[in-house]
């Protein structure tokens, strides 16, 4: 499984960086729980849990900060 699509964090725009951050977070979940059936079964539980939703938002924010730094904050 390719954990960093294209093996690069470089993106053309901040919006592309944000999309990459979301993708990286999703790939992390997939790598951690490789059984798709289990992920599907667990999804309703965390989709209704505000703590889980806040936690994933924090993961995406961390990924985005890393991508922004790699892109010299698009300057």
UniProtKB/TrEMBL annotation:
One Pfam family linked to the record: HTHP
Protein origin, superkingdom? Bacteria
Protein name as annotated: Hexameric tyrosine-coordinated heme protein (HTHP)
Upper classification of the source organism reads: Bacteria, Bacillati, Actinomycetota, Actinomycetes, Pseudonocardiales
